[in-house]
Write a sequence for this structure.
């Protein structure tokens, strides 16, 4: 099976994630879109790992690291979202212009 | 106290367990439940095997229809308003030639909605004529909640499961003993409420009176013996109009009857004598009652009337008596004590205590009973002393009492005084509404 | 006896079918056992009538009753999510059974990462619970779902860590390897560590099943049935009854596999080797189930904050220490 | 034979994942979006299994589905997650779509061109052993591993500090 299948799928998911980050207002939805992008990266990494099986498992290791980083990111991101919600009763990232000017 | 010590030791054990290590309490708890796993269980598989309930289990409320005077007290006191009573008035021909026709309430419907009833028993407590009883019956469930409204037929059926009242304890006031009623009347009267003087007398009396017919009907025979006595006659017995009893009563009644003439005199010696006479009259009646109880014979009726009628003169007689005099009697009508002042004077509490104790001892009461009575006397004496400062309210009703008592059955309990719907307010309309709804 | 030749696919199909029948039957049996054991622990008899003999058909009758109940979806509910939630709760429970070795060769699939699979799959139900609670349009359901999710996350960690302790001892993530590596005193070995890990695992398992004393998410006195408040009929059975029972059976199996030596005889004595492993597994399994059932009528329900405090401030530190201790043991002993 | 089967599985999951991912960014209900993300993540886990990365697949399930999405749902329900539709998009949708489309075009073109004719070897039957992965992590990647664990710890502490209520930060240790 050509590796490009996985790569294109990954690219598609990544682009969808980019769209979500750009087009969504809700902070948690933005986080979800970021997860999509990270996931797309993971698919790429694992696919390359399978492609380069002789070279070792580096791709999978990186995928594990990405997952760990994603967990950390979600933890901090959600904490921030909840803090913002507590202060302004809103989760709209477009409205968070308090420090802008 | 043993309980406190045990609690203390429990607490100590608890703190020991806390000290002795983490999680030991958990293990102990698990050991407790595990122990129960191997114990033989005590569950009774109800429909298959039935528990031996205590004889006076409060299962369901039974109605003794003959005793009901449609006074509506039960319906009014019921917290859930689950008692529905309908009645109508009947006019009876006069008893004597030339008398006025009498009216009485006839019970049409008496229903308890057991889907509402919360078994508080207030209706049983409040019934002045002993028409409601606790029955040990409890299996009366229905498939439809509407059928849980049981009508008087069903309620009357449950009467067959009602036990006769327990034996009185030794030395207790015998039912129908006049002094008891008198004493209670005076105790109430010390509350310095003139109107209540009569009412308490009236209230006290039906209890005494009703015990007599009750005896007959507690037997489980299908033909209830009480029905041999027409209901209105029973009611008449209990009604205050019968302070002057109708002719045609037996000789014993007449013997007691002769005395009330003295009651109008506010002379303590005489009234106490009357009380004693009444007591002597009631004694054979009581023995007859016991006899009828044992044999469950309906023939017990005629003598049973005696105590109730005899109680009345005593009540009326007791009222003029100085409260101090009767208060110390302990409800026993003992040897008359000369009381020089009509009211407001009490003897020394300790003296009363010793005197009653001696009296009781000489009468052969058990030491516990004697001591209890003596203590009661002491307390009464103490209260009497406290009240000597205000003699006026105590004396005032004494004067008016003899006139007021027989003729004015003021607050409750007297059937004639109340119409078929005694209080036009809450009770009757709800009953009607519920009827139309149901 | 004619040789039955089955392809790998057919074998897999048979295995899946067996699991699909085992789980509901096991849940029914577990429900019955719970009724009876709990009753006797409380000095009662429990169900006595359905089925005739000691009410053996109670849970069957219960299930039939639920089958006939109306399937109600609240008007304000999110229909799609509401209907999917029971499946999201129940299917992961089914998947746990794939890697529990009932005997050396009686396992659906001996995965290389068996334990990891167990824990991963077991954590999916949380989403189902959240789905159920959120979609019910009921505040009690939502509160219950949040409690449930917080609790499942909190107690997932001690379970993972205690399983990690065992995996470290065995040097493998495969359940078969772990069972093979365990020897006689099973849970008590290595001294202290194994026993404490077992206790931590049991506590975490009880919490994961949301059973008393950790049943705050479904505390009926406060929030009715928590996330399952609005569920009726079969949905209720699958989301709550079967899921709880299925979880219990699964966790009992995991506990037996990880800590009690799985299908191995209780004492390493050669005559006992004759007895098939299934029987040993069954014995230990029954013991484990009894332990779970025993806990329920014994302890009162803890408070929600106590529950969280207990997990984060006690169980997780303890299991972290256990991991360290086991590391030292593996290195130096 | 095995190849075809794997290809079918891939296409099934690929299509499902793509649709789910699309719904993640277009759904008008936040909880639905999060649940669609679960679909995407589970599909990714299935693809990992297909690519012989079993351990990564189960880590994906355990961490992503079991923890991250649950955390997301938690955050949603703690903020505001009404049943029914709501408007969550800003007015840059068209621009975002153009950007995303361009990105997809460029990246897929580059990658297809770069790896044209390279096939994943599906002939092997055994996936990656967890042991091998562990050896790689704890030898070649030990430093990144430690860094990642420190990152996780820092994130944990940071999240607690950020999400904590103010009075508890200032006041004495509430407990």
């Amino acid at each position: 099976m050509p590796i490009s299948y996985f790569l294109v799928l990954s690219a598609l998911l990544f682009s969808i994630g980019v769209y979500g980050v750009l087009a969504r207002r809700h902070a948690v939805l933005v986080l979800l879109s970021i997860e999509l992008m990270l996931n797309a990266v993971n698919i790429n990494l694992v696919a390359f790992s399978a492609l380069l099986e002789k070279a070792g498992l580096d791709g999978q290791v990186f995928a594990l690291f990405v997952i760990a980083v994603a967990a950390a990111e979600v933890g901090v991101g959600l904490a921030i979202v909840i803090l913002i919600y507590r202060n302004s009763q809103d989760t709209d990232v477009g409205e968070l212009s308090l420090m802008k000017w | 106290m043993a309980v406190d010590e045990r609690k203390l030791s429990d607490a100590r054990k608890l703190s020991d367990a806390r000290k002795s290590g983490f999680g030991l309490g958990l293990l102990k708890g698990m050991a407790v439940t595990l122990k129960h796993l191997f114990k033989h269980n005590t569950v009774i598989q109800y429909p298959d095997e039935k528990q031996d309930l205590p004889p006076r289990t409060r299962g369901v409320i039974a109605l003794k229809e003959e005793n009901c005077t449609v006074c509506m007290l039960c319906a009014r006191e019921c917290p859930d308003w689950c008692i529905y009573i309908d009645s109508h008035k009947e006019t009876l021909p006069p008893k004597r030639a030339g008398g006025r026709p009498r009216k009485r309430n006839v019970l049409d419907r008496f229903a308890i909605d057991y889907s509402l009833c919360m078994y508080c028993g207030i209706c049983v407590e409040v019934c002045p004529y002993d028409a409601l009883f606790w029955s040990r019956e409890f299996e009366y469930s229905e498939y439809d909640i509407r059928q849980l409204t049981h009508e008087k037929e069903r309620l009357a059926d449950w009467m067959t499961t009602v036990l006769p009242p327990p034996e009185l304890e030794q030395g207790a006031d015998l039912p129908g003993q006049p002094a008891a009623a008198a004493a209670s009347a005076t105790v109430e009267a010390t509350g310095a409420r003139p109107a209540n003087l009569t009412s308490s007398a009236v209230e006290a009396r039906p209890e005494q009176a009703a015990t007599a017919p009750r005896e007959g009907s507690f037997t489980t025979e299908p033909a209830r013996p009480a029905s041999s006595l027409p209901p209105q006659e029973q009611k008449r017995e209990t009604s205050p109009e019968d302070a002057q009893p109708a002719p045609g009563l037996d000789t014993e009644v007449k013997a007691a009857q002769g005395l009330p003439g003295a009651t109008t005199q506010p002379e303590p010696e005489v009234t106490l004598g009357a009380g004693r006479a009444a007591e002597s009259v009631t004694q054979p009646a009581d023995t007859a009652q016991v006899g009828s109880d044992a044999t469950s014979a309906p023939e017990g009726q005629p003598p049973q009337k005696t105590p109730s009628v005899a109680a009345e003169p005593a009540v009326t007689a007791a009222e003029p008596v100085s409260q101090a005099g009767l208060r110390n009697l302990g409800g026993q009508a003992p040897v008359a004590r000369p009381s020089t002042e009509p009211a407001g004077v009490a003897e020394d509490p300790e003296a009363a205590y010793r005197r009653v104790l001696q009296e009781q001892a000489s009468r052969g009461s058990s030491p516990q009973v004697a001591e209890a009575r003596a203590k009661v006397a002491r307390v009464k004496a103490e209260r009497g002393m406290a009240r000597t400062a205000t003699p006026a309210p105590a004396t005032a009703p004494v004067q008016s009492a003899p006139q007021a008592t027989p003729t004015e059955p003021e607050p409750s309990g007297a059937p004639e005084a109340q119409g078929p719907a005694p209080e036009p307010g809450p009770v009757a309309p709800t009953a009607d509404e519920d009827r139309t709804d149901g | 006896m004619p040789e039955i030749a089955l392809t790998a696919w057919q074998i897999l199909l048979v295995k899946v079918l067996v699991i699909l029948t085992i789980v509901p039957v096991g849940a029914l049996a577990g429900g019955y056992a719970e009724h009876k054991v709990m009753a006797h622990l409380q000095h009662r008899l429990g169900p006595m009538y359905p089925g005739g003999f000691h009410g053996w058909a109670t849970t069957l009758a219960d299930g039939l009753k639920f089958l006939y109940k109306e399937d109600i979806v609240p008007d304000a509910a999110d229909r799609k999510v509401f209907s999917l939630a029971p499946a999201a709760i129940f299917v992961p429970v089914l998947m746990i059974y794939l890697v529990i070795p009932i005997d050396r060769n009686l396992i659906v699939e001996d995965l290389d990462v068996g334990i990891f699979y167990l824990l991963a799959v077991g954590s999916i139900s949380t989403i189902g619970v959240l789905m159920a609670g959120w979609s019910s349009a009921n505040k009690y359901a939502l509160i219950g779902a949040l409690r449930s999710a917080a609790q499942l996350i909190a107690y997932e960690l001690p379970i993972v860590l205690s399983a990690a302790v065992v995996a470290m001892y065995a040097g493998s993530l495969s359940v078969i390897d772990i069972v093979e590596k365990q020897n006689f005193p099973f849970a008590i070995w290595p001294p202290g560590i194994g026993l404490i890990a077992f206790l931590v695992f049991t506590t975490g398992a009880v919490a994961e099943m949301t059973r008393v004393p950790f049943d705050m998410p479904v505390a009926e006195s406060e929030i009715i049935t928590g996330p399952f408040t609005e569920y009726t009929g079969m949905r209720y059975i699958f989301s709550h009854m079967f899921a709880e029972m299925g979880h219990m059976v699964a966790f009992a199996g995991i506990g037996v596999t990880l800590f009690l030596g799985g299908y191995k005889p209780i004492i390493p004595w050669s005559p006992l080797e004759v007895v098939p492993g299934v029987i040993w597994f069954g014995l230990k399994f029954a013991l484990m189930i009894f332990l779970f059932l025993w806990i329920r009528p014994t302890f009162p329900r803890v408070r929600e904050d106590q529950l969280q405090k207990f997990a984060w401030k006690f169980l997780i530190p303890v299991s972290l220490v256990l991991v360290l201790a086991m590391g030292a043991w593996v290195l130096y002993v | 034979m095995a190849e075809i089967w794997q290809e079918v599985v891939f296409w099934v999951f690929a299509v499902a994942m793509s649709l789910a991912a699309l719904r993640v960014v277009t759904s008008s209900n936040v909880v639905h979006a999060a649940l669609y993300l679960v679909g995407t993540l589970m599909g990714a886990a299935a693809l990992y299994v297909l690519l012989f990365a079993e351990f990564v697949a189960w880590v994906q399930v355990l961490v992503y589905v079991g923890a991250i999405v649950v955390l997301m749902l938690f955050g949603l329900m703690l903020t505001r997650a009404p049943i029914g539709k709501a408007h969550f998009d800003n007015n840059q949708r068209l621009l975002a779509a153009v950007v995303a489309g361009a990105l997809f075009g460029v990246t897929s073109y580059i990658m297809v061109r770069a790896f044209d004719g390279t096939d994943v070897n599906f002939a092997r039957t055994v996936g990656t052993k967890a042991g091998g992965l562990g050896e790689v992590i704890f030898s070649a990647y030990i430093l990144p591993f430690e860094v990642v664990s420190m990152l996780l710890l820092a994130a944990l502490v940071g999240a607690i500090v950020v999400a904590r209520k103010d009075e508890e930060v200032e006041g004495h240790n509430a407990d």
